[in-house]
Amino acid sequence: RAKLKRTILSIYNLYIAKPIPFPSGEGPLQGPYLRGKSLLGTSKEVEKALDNYRANNKQYKLYANNKNLGYYLVPCGALPCCGTSPRGLAGLLEGGDHISLPVLSTTTLNRVLNPRIVFTSHISNLGLYAFIQSNLGNIGRFQMIGNNTIRYIIGDKNGIILFINLIHGKLRTPKNKIFNDLINFINIKYSTNISESLLDSSHFSNNSWFTGFTEADGHFGIKYVESKAKSDTCNRSVSENVSLKFRLDQRSYDKSTSSPMKPFMEKLALFLSCNLKSYTNNMGSEIPPAGVTPAGGITFLVDYFNKYTLLGDKFKDYKKWEVVYGMIKSKEHLTDEGRLKIRSLMGKI
């Protein structure tokens, strides 16, 4: 236990959130609230976002079962973080969201620090996170960053332990190591006996984990190629073509653990029946993407996402993508009206 404590102390830096002022005459709001450098609203605003979300997104009912929600949250929300800033991976596989671990001691002000689990998203996803909060017993708080970014923060002992139990044994990537560091931290600080979280080896199609992964990092693309006749500037004619693409990108190495992501991505590519082809992004990082374009692969994805539906803004992109899928199956994409409709949908993704 002492050796483990020294290890944690050597890895993680102290992270203290600065207090955020409220407008004159106002104090912290009780229950679910939004606060930040500028106060966005009250608990009523969060409740309104939740009501609107439930009214317009019936697919949330699948996740009334916390087991499904736990699988969904694993890739969408639990990005462990070492140090004082989030470690974003490629997009949202636990991206933008993080776990911050302070040192195992009190501060110079004699404050006892807890870890913080932080979900970061665009304000358009407030309803989604209000739904998540409601399913977790209204633990945590909301914070507004700038004009269009929200954070959902879980920082109390009971909330963190609830979150640990919810996603325990459901992680699949090297970040499971950092999640176990969080468990060890809680065990040491509060003398709990939470067991180690083992990597989930269940089939991807058996739960909503892949849906959360897609919410984080997936991209639904529609490609439309206009026909072009052979000309002086084009030696070959181009046939009109409409195709659908689905893509996921990850860095080759998980920075928080220095572990390769390729073995995991190879398993995912096998699930998607596709190949991995690495490329280097503008930051010099090697990215092994996984994507599908064949009709058979698209059909498989449509069946999966209609069973384990997306919950956030990505759901809107998927539904437009699914419309084009249906048009291709029915040959409607070959008509003038179909082409116009597809162009319109492309502009909305």
From TrEMBL:
What's a GO cellular component annotated to this UniProt protein?
Answer: mitochondrion
Instruction: List the molecular function annotations (GO) for this entry.
Output: endonuclease activity
Q: Which ranges carry the Homing endonuclease LAGLIDADG domain?
A: 211-324
Query: What's the encoding gene here?
Result: orf349
Its keywords, alphabetically, are:
Mitochondrion
InterPro entries cross-referenced by the UniProt entry: Homing_endonucl, LAGLIDADG_dom, LAGLIDADG_Endonuclease
This protein is called Homing endonuclease LAGLIDADG domain-containing protein
